[in-house]
Amino acid sequence: MKIGPLEETDRERWETLARGYKEFYRTEVPDEGYERTWRRLRRAEDVFGCAARLDSGRMVGFAHYLFHANPWAARSCYLQDLFVAETERGRGVGRGLIEYVAQVARDHGAARLHWLTQQDNERARLLYDKVAVARGFISYDRFLD
């Protein structure tokens, strides 16, 4: 498996996986939302993406991340999205994506990599509990028009 930045040739497979990710979290995104997000990821100015590929070159997972200011540290990196094709779960793809983003974050001077997941996402939490510390925070969202 190889992990690296998203490439133009990943577009179709990325959308297939992204739709699976959004379906998992029961979030609807219009078709143009996928195109808009893809363009932002490819520009790599404010949000970034990476892909996990098998030796065959087939993309089997992705991560999206961004950097943000932090009053208490130089910089932080937020792992916004992480998704692995169901057929590839349990094979180290998720861990590889997290480690890749962690290294990119270190290279960019971030002091911390953090992310959220749903409380009942037990399968993912088995991995997350091995590679990070759950600090007991509860997330709130206030949607703005």
UniProtKB/TrEMBL annotation:
Keyword list, A-Z: Acyltransferase, Transferase
Gene Ontology MF, one: N-acetyltransferase activity
UniProt superkingdom: Bacteria
Alphabetized Pfam families for the sequence: Acetyltransf_1
Residue ranges of every copy of the N-acetyltransferase domain listed in the record: 1-145
PROSITE patterns noted in UniProt: GNAT
Name this protein carries in UniProt: GNAT family N-acetyltransferase
Record lineage: Bacteria, Bacillati, Actinomycetota, Actinomycetes, Pseudonocardiales
